[in-house]
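Hey, I was hoping to borrow your eyes for a little while. There's a protein on my desk that I can't quite get my head around. The fold is given in discrete form, as structure tokens running alongside the sequence. I'd be grateful if you could look everything over and explain what you see. Here's the protein in full, and shout if anything looks odd to you:
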Amino acid sequence: MKVKPKKHLGQHFLKDKQIAENIVNLLSLHGGYTKVLEIGPGMGVLTDFLITRPDYETHLIDIDAESIVYLKKKYPQLQNRIIQGDFLRLNLDTLFDEPFAIIGNFPYNISSQILFNILDHKNKVPEVVCMLQREVAQRLASPPGNKEYGILSVLLQAYYTIEYKFTVHEGVFDPPPKVKSGVIRLLRNSVEKLDCDEKLFKQVVKQGFNNRRKTLRNALKPLHLPESMHTHPLLDKRAEQLSVADFIELTKLAKEA
């Protein structure tokens, strides 16, 4: 029995066992978790390696009913740890009462939404290992001053150290995607809460990158920053030139003003 990859779910099943093992080997137990949630296991190419590890308990979530039937037959030992559901609608706070890692070959069309959901539960998720479209993976790991650097780069790098690990070529998937993939690892840093208004921080970052070709003085006009801030040197720069620390400073100044 095989599961048919479904285009509307963005399914591209990895066929290369060595790459699957390399991805699973990136899990480092950072933060001391004992549970791992795999998103979109499909036919279980990562799961085959996850279940051999004694350090953690493997749980699976997949939205595809056909995959769920297949996985329950293939892994009878995981019966009560296989969830049929939509990760984007999952309340991660109620899933486990302890920290857990996330791993998966994320569907390209919803990978950013998956990461935003993880970000909302960052204090529950100390480590993420995932495969994404290569351009997205590079963007997330990109440092400031780089044209790839964007909104999600800043928001995630505020709470995670992100490493680009390796590139995966199109031919090792069924069906082959039209783009290359990249594998990244996110490790939670020690920042529990930003040293600024976190809601305003998000607004400043998003507004800055929404007009990324403009200087921040012009890009942030919709936020109605007070006159007293208009001469600040950070506002002479574009969003992609600012580090997380710079955005925090800008947020504090906006809040104080």
Q: What stands out?
A: The chain has a mean pLDDT of 94. The longest helix spans residues 198-210.
